[in-house]
Amino acid sequence: MLGYRTMFIEFDPSESIDRIIRETTAKSNDFEVGFNPQVRPADERFGDFQANGILPYAKKAGLNPRELAQKLIDLLPHSDLWETDIAGPGFINFKLSSSFFKQWIDKFHDINSIKNAIQVENQQKIVVDFSSPNTAKQMHVGHIRSTIIGESLARLLGFMGHEIIRDNHLGDWGTQFGILLFAIKKENISLSELGNDPIAKLENLYRQGNNWVKDDEDNLIQARGELVKLQNGDPENLDLWQKIKDISMDSFLSIYEMLGVQFDHSLGESFYRDKVELIYEQLLAHKICEENDGALVVFHPDHKRFSKQPFIIRKSDGASNYATTDLATVAFRKNEWQSNQIIYVTDGRQRDHFEQLFMTVQKWFSAEKNACPLLKHVWFGTILGDDNKAIKTRDGEPVKLIDLLSESIERAKKMVIEKKPDLEGSEILRRAKIIGLGAVRYADLSQDRTLDYVFSWEKMLAMQGNTAPYLQYAVARIHSIFRKIESKPNQHHSTEYPPTTDSEKKLARKLLFFSGALKQTAKELKPHFLGTYLYELATEFSSFYNQSKVMVEEKEIKSLRILLCARTLTVLEIGLNILGIDTLEEM
Ligand code: ARG
Known about the structure:
Layout: H1 2-8, H2 13-26, E1 39-41, E2 49-51, H3 54-61, H4 65-75, E3 82-87, E4 91-96, H5 98-107, H6 111-118, E5 125-129, H7 141-159, E6 163-167, H8 176-187, H9 198-215, H10 217-231, H11 235-259, H12 277-285, E7 290-292, E8 295-298, E9 311-314, H13 322-335, E10 341-347, H14 351-367, E11 374-380, E12 383-384, H15 401-419, H16 425-445, E13 453-454, H17 457-460, H18 468-484, H19 502-512, H20 514-524, H21 528-547, H22 555-578
Parallel strand pairs: 5-6, 5-10, 10-11, 12-13
Antiparallel strand pairs: 1-2, 2-4, 3-4, 7-8, 8-9
Helix pairs in contact: 3-4, 5-19, 8-9, 8-10, 9-10, 10-11, 13-14, 15-16, 18-21, 18-22, 19-21, 19-22, 20-21, 21-22
Arginine binds next to helix 13 and strand 10.
């Protein structure tokens, strides 16, 4: 019997409840096929989980929902794992017992047991297309959101057992190269002598080039000529282009290294330049695109706006564009990598592009009788300055990512020194990096990604509230408890004594909802669900710790409380790691 019970305790308790209800109703004539228990987290005042499926089912079957709910309760096997009661017109509340809590915290005791428990049944090969800056330019703060959100979704989906391919779709084949090559040649610049901030120099050159072509038709013609030469494979231009790409990659890599982000591929737009002809041919053959003033365009007659607003897949001068390379990219990811899902992480301003891309791809794959991968656009809002406009530097320039990260580390350094003036320099820097980078990341991940948010150093570095330093402090505090008792968190495996007091039960209850937070985050592809959960867990821990002395005389109570500390630590560390936030043992 006991063996059956521990098997029965699942990482997501709502699954245990769902299963027992299904097993029970399958044996009863009152519930024919098609009954869905619909188990959800409940309002804490009434229980822990609620089965909502009775009401719609009773309605359909013409039965009295409260009577049917009672019937189900009577049929459920007797169990000391929960108490049930009927609420409202026929919801069933499940209040988990101390015994359930105890078994759950015994069972899910470390990262491996949690990881095993959260593995998806239907493993997918998922491409996460994120970061994707444009070469010859510095990464700006707009790319920070893509990098931070994309990395955390890749970590989460990987943790849940999917196979993840991280692909950095660099913008390295655009019209900017014509202007840049023109400026480089006009100024007679050698790319190996750009000084110690080569990418800033390139950016300036580009700006200068832009002014030249704006003022003078002749310059414009020359710049266009450079682009055509590049696209036709002119060795000199290709060589310059490659050098520019290398310089850009070096600067991106230093940021990725700081953020702990690594890509499996950085193929970029240029990789697809010889793969676009086939797209034109196939889309023309299937009559998905048409010629329009010399350009090739796709209309979607069944769509309100896109029946009139064209998706341009080849420009009138015959050149490919962003849409063309994106079409080729989907085909490559499906046919070469056998991926069954692609997630694109970009700014919300690209929503139309992706909507049109996805509709076009679906028609195209269906015409080719090729199974279309699931395509998802994970878009995000803008980071705003104090003035509620897109964040800018004092001279009105876009804020550079590297400056932002450096400033955060600088500010965190002051916090560390203030608290521990005697620390060694290298340790100060190590801590400042973890706190500073964590703060920037979490400021981004703790908000619903579709909202714009105001960037505030004070808020993101605060030790109180829903911030990274607050969460990191909770972790450090638990580590300090284990230092005090001269033990390690992973030495505590089980407890004889179940959570009993109010604060013990509340903390245990919060731990049980970890699976729900992970699943919701993965379903909506919104990391703030996980962030909010971790913040609530840390707050719950804080009240537990204020109310319950850990080092009490009674051995059983002490061991339970230590165990609750250890489990909270594990969940916080797993969750923060998924968000890309490092932690400290001492803060
Ligand atoms: N390079 C683009 C930008 O900076 C983002 C590319 C996103 N990925 C894609 N497959 N279109 O806005």
